[in-house]
Specification:
By secondary structure, the chain is α/β, with parallel strands linked by helices. The chain is built from 18 helices and 14 strands. A hairpin with a 2-residue loop joins strand 2 and strand 3.
Length: 536
């Protein structure tokens, strides 16, 4: 039998000496170095066909092992331990590669607890007398007969019924709650409970290749760790279920909102696409400037133009130089309503001259927005030429080619062309900013309209309540002023793309802004449709 010595230092370096030949053994950790050294020892035993006794020293202590040619790693007693004299040594573990081989099971004092635990041999006697052998010719003494057992008085041992029965009678309770611990049937626990020891000296020996079973304390720790893991998994499962339920509820609500929004969109588009048998005039008015009249005129025109597929014109009928031409998409030439009156008004007095292409020379196409803009003149003096008669002439021309005419007005409702526009109005739209001054101007204007006999226009009016980034008025209070006076109040959110004062890019507006103007346009169309029905 070969002697093998293994030495491992705390830095995981080591040596193995086999038959007087020493070789280095290295690993990244002490455990890896142990594994490499024992692998070399097993390889030597297989090559020689004989078991080898291994003495291993590492930072945890000294161990005495035996490796066998079949790959087994056995525990052997210390040669200097007098407590092992006279014991028949059995392998601590046989069949290193045989899962069916017996495993060592020690108690807390390190004693073998196997049913076939080794027994101490009795000393062999050196004298014949010590064997207690009878002389020749004499029979061997018979074994003494055992004394007869005392008769069993079973009746004497039966307790009286009165001793068993209390004042309330015999009460027998049987615990039927034998539900097994679910952990015991968990496949993971079956695997974990069969793993070799990892703690204490058992774990250290297992680090040398043995497979000693864990103590009850270690099993209890593993059981508790698994139980906590199961609890954590169950908590995560419950949380995942709750999250899924919340997601389902949110998704259901989101789907409901989407369906509602889709239905609202279809309804609004259908209203905006209403066909009118005659031109409809929408007057956008507020006596005070800065209330959003021009933005409303452009955005309502773009909304109606896109949904109706054209057939919409926005006219800047300001008594002075208006702003709609500046906010709209520019044209190659800056022709205005005054140029139309001066250069082409007579052309539209004949059938041959009444051409859309002629009118297109003086309007500005707004591209994908599918509506046109008729701008006011940039000269204030020339714009004064648009009086009541001129308004009626331009309105008649526009009505030949467009069924929806949006009129952006100035701040003076007493001028003649405003009076003419008011007389031709089918729908009144009143933009109001968040400030109290704009609301006051709108109220006084409505009072004037009612005094002039246009109470129906006021009652059917649509108020656009514009939010502002700089003016924080009482929107609720302003809405309260008009809710009993007009047909509808539509909030318009603040949008930086409109607040800049630059050319309006309708696609750059926020979705909420476009949605608000679509609602406003549909509300206007609904009023026009009702007017059509009433007239019919």
């Amino acid at each position: 039998m070969t002697d093998i010595a293994i030495t491992i230092t705390p830095d995981a370096s080591g040596t193995i000496t086999i038959g007087g030949a020493t070789a280095p053994v290295t690993g990244k950790t002490i455990e890896q170095t142990r594994e490499e050294a024992m692998q070399q020892a097993v390889t030597h035993a297989r090559q020689t066909g004989e078991p080898a006794e291994v003495t291993a020293d590492d930072p945890t202590g000294t161990f005495y092992l035996t490796v066998t040619p079949d790959g087994g790693i056995l525990n052997r007693p210390s040669p200097t331990d007098p407590g092992t004299a006279g014991w028949e040594q059995e392998p601590a573990l046989t069949g290193h590669d045989d899962p069916g081989a017996p495993q060592v099971a020690f108690d807390e004092q390190g004693r073998d607890r196997r049913p076939s635990a080794p027994q101490r041999r009795e000393p062999i006697p050196h004298n014949v007398e010590d064997l207690n052998v009878p002389p020749a010719g004499q029979p061997a003494p018979a074994d003494p007969e055992p004394a007869p057992a005392a008769p069993l008085d079973e009746a004497a041992n039966v307790p009286e019924l009165s001793e068993l029965v209390g004042a309330g009678g015999i009460e027998v309770t049987t615990d039927l709650s034998t539900t097994p611990d679910p952990l015991e049937t968990d496949p993971r626990w079956i695997k974990i409970s069969q793993q070799p020891a990892e703690d204490g000296w058992r774990g250290t020996l297992n680090g040398w290749g043995l497979k000693i079973t864990p103590t009850e304390d270690e099993l209890a720790q593993r059981r508790e760790a698994l139980r906590q893991e199961i609890t954590r998994e169950e908590q995560e499962r419950l949380e995942a279920e709750q999250h899924a339920q919340e997601e389902a509820v949110q998704e259901s609500r989101r789907a409901a909102r989407e369906r509602e929004a889709a239905a609202k969109d279809r309804t609004e588009r259908a209203l905006i696409q209403t066909s009118f048998e005659e031109p409809k005039n929408v007057l956008i008015a507020n006596d005070k400037g800065g209330q959003g009249k021009t933005s409303a005129c452009y955005c309502i025109g773009a909304t109606a133009g896109r949904i109706r597929g054209g057939d919409v014109v926005s006219w800047d009928a300001n008594e002075t130089r208006g702003n709609l031409g500046f906010r709209a998409k520019k044209a190659p030439t800056a022709r205005s309503v005054v140029d139309l009156l001066e250069q082409a008004a007579e052309d539209f007095t004949t059938v041959e001259g009444s051409k859309r292409s002629t009118l297109a020379r003086f309007t500005r196409s707004q591209g994908d927005n599918l509506f046109a803009v008729l701008a006011s003149d940039e000269s204030r003096d020339r714009q004064d030429l648009v009086d009541a008669e001129a308004f009626e002439k331009v309105y008649e021309i526009l009505g030949r080619f467009y069924s929806l005419i949006l009129i952006d007005t100035g701040n003076n409702h007493r001028v003649s062309h405003f009076t003419a526009a008011l007389a031709a109005t089918d729908q009144l739209v009143v933009p109001v900013s968040a400030g109290a001054d704009g609301a006051y101007a709108a109220e006084t204007m409505m009072d004037t309209f009612e005094s002039l006999g246009y109470g129906d226009l006021v009652k059917n009016a649509v108020v656009l309540l514009n939010d502002s980034a700089t003016r924080r008025g009482d929107a609720t209070g302003i809405a309260t002023k008009f809710e009993q006076r007009v047909r509808a109040i539509i909030p318009i959110p603040f949008d930086p793309a409109l607040d800049s004062g630059e050319e309006i890019d309708f696609d750059a507006l926020q979705p909420a802004t476009r949605a608000a103007y679509q609602e406003a346009t549909a509300t206007i169309a609904q009023g026009l449709a009702d007017t059509k029905e009433n007239q019919a």
